[in-house]
Design brief:
heterodimer; A: 180 residues; mainly alpha; two-stranded antiparallel sheet; 7 helices; globular; B: 416 residues; mainly beta; five-stranded mixed beta sheet; five-stranded antiparallel beta sheet; 26 strands; 32% strand
């Protein structure tokens, strides 16, 4: 996991000072029953991927490998070529956005990795190896015309891929902080 | 308003009618609407002539009420079940009838093995057991919870023949008791760069939502109790995030992880879902606050008004922006309106019960309610809502509900 930059000396000092201030503050009424936990212990749970790619693991997968993962793990719910089955369509043209697919709707490519790793396949979540996740994400992006057939996908490529519908998203808190 | 006691068109009555001189009115209406059964009306019933049943450890509704249940839509544990609003009165939802929305079933969590972690941009990443959390200070608050997909059936081009609960039952209200989240965030020590809190559940969807820190540090709570007892499994046992007035899916159930971050997670359920597609093709993210809304629950869809005469119109109103200030009712399809009585206390971000006496003359008509909150937000007409939000919005439908009353007393969903 290259999930966060090493703290520089100034940042480390700031954290230290912050800790000193907090520990001597009389304003906090809590009973302080939480136990400290380190990054190593957190790693099995801390699997969120930030929209800037932070948290993406090492590894890679190809479109071709992803096709095999898809056939075995995803096809029954999402249909041939991701056109939808009992569950959501992942690809296919729909200008009216009745079917909101990865290609016509999703703002951030990082969301695919985050979601598939944590919640898919439906009956066996968190069972895919990171390389399998990269591969199946590559296949889904390919189905949407966003990666060529011979492509391979890794953390850098995924974090810098711009989704076609990204700029149609807005919020009170700014635009999507993802892509190039 | 040509009849004494009327406050708006088509028989809406002065609210005080039944409490003062209007008692005479009630007597007249009752005499007109009821007939005494033949034979002896006062036979001593069997349940008076023998001892009743034993006590039991956990009470259940009368078997005569066994038909009162959530309406379930979906496969297995993925989907939603809706509160039967039309069968309830008052302002609180029985825990067993609180709506459900799950993304991959209800996890069977052993509280002895459940943990909560707080990490990310904090001075001290922390892990808590449930035993630890149960020692923290708690507060109790009465609030509604509403799925932002509630009432989405009203986007259908033709009105669907459904009940109030089937249309609008992804809203419920409870007394929630839990730990102010700010206490735990203070203990972890939130970094100055931090802007968001990413919350994750322990269910098989590991459902993840991001919340701006000011909301998390405000009235947010880690709920442990619902209506006086520990959370029901389908409402997040043993621990859920509760964010008053904020769309349901951000109130992460089965909460196990809180990550303090600089950026929102852009999780699947805040990007590809739970975003609002407008008529211009642009989509709004993080539309978290629930709008002002009301619905008449009696008489409502698929119910039957037994006979012309006195009817008490009743319903619920709520707003994510604060207290309900006013609910108006119309019995003539919106041509005239009168203020309904609000059941006190009127609480912020809770269900408010409203009631309005009505004399139905037996002719077809359309009933509506329109809520206004203390911020001055007014519930829009369906036409106005669709004009500004479009038909593809999916979420945050809060327009006025219209119920058509037919000459035979049958009530049905209609678009007025």
């Amino acid at each position: 996991m290259r999930d966060r930059p090493q703290p520089g000396p100034l940042r480390a000092l700031a954290i230290l000072l912050g800790a000193v201030v907090m520990s001597t503050s009389a304003a906090t009424p809590g009973p302080r029953l939480g136990a400290p936990i380190d990054a190593e212990s957190l790693s099995s749970w801390a699997i969120s991927i930030a929209p800037d790619g932070r948290g993406l693991p090492d590894g890679s997968g190809t479109v071709e490998q992803g096709r095999a993962v898809y056939q075995a793990q995803c096809l029954a719910c999402h249909g041939e070529q991701g056109r939808g089955g009992p569950h959501d369509a992942l690809a296919g043209v729909d200008d009216k956005l009745v079917k909101r697919t990865v290609g016509n709707y999703w703002p951030c490519a990082t969301t695919l990795f985050d979601y598939i790793r944590r919640a898919m396949p439906l009956t066996n979540p968190q069972s895919l190896h990171p390389d399998q996740v990269y591969a199946v994400v590559a296949w889904i992006l390919h189905l949407n015309g966003l990666l060529p057939e011979d492509a391979s996908l890794d953390a850098h490529k995924l974090a810098t891929l711009k989704m076609p519908n990204r700029d149609q998203f807005y919020s009170d808190y700014g635009p999507p902080a993802c892509g190039p | 308003m040509d009849t004494p006691g009327e406050v708006a068109g088509n028989g809406l009555l002065e609210r005080r009618t039944l409490m003062s001189g209007g008692i005479r009115w009630l007597a007249v209406l009752a005499a007109a609407g009821s007939t005494q059964a033949a034979g002896s009306p006062l036979a001593v019933p069997a349940w008076t002539l023998q001892p009743g049943t034993d006590m039991r450890g956990y009470g259940q509704p009368s078997p005569h009420e066994s038909g009162i249940a959530r309406s379930v839509v979906g496969r297995g544990g993925t989907g939603a079940s809706r509160t039967p609003l039309e069968s309830l009165d008052g302002t609180l939802t029985p825990s067993g009838l609180h709506f459900e929305r799950h993304h991959n079933g209800v996890p069977a969590i052993d509280p002895a093995a459940h943990k909560l972690v707080i990490h990310g941009l904090v001075a001290r990443p922390l892990i808590f057991s449930m035993e630890d959390l149960l020692r923290y200070p708690r507060v109790s608050r009465i609030h509604f919870l509403e799925c932002s997909g509630n009432s989405a059936a009203c986007f259908a081009p033709e009105p669907l023949p459904l009940t109030a609960g089937e249309l609008h039952g992804l809203v419920s209200a409870s007394e929630w008791t839990g730990i102010p989240l700010s206490i735990l965030l203070d203990e972890a020590g939130v970094d100055q760069e931090a802007r968001w809190l990413v919350a994750e559940g322990a269910d098989a969807a590991a459902l993840t939502r991001s919340v701006p820190l000011p909301i998390a540090q405000g009235e947010a709570m880690l709920a442990l109790y619902q209506n006086g007892e520990r959370l029901r499994p389908e409402n997040g046992y043993p621990l859920r995030l509760f964010l008053p007035g904020i769309e349901g899916s951000a109130n992460i159930k089965w909460l196990r992880r809180l990550e303090v971050t600089r950026l929102p997670g852009m999780a699947r359920d805040e990007t590809s879902k739970y975003t609002d597609l407008g008529p211009d093709g642009r989509s709004r993210m993080f539309s978290l606050a629930m709008g002002v809304k009301s619905v008449i629950t009696t008489p409502s869809g698929k119910q039957q008004i037994p006979a012309p005469g006195y009817v008490q119109i009743s319903g619920v109103a709520w707003s994510g922006a604060g207290r309900i200030q006013r609910v108006e009712v119309s019995a003539d399809g919106g041509q005239s309106w009168a203020d309904a009585e609000l059941q006190s206390p009127v609480l912020a971000r809770a269900l408010t019960r409203f009631r309005m006496p009505w004399r139905w003359d037996g002719r077809p008509c359309v009933l509506q309610s329109r809520a206004t909150d203390e911020q001055g937000n007014i519930q829009p007409s369906r036409q106005a809502f669709l004009a500004s939000h479009g038909y593809r919005h999916v979420y945050h439908y809060n327009a006025i509900q219209s119920w058509a009353v037919a000459a035979d007393g049958a009530v049905s969903n209609t678009y007025a």
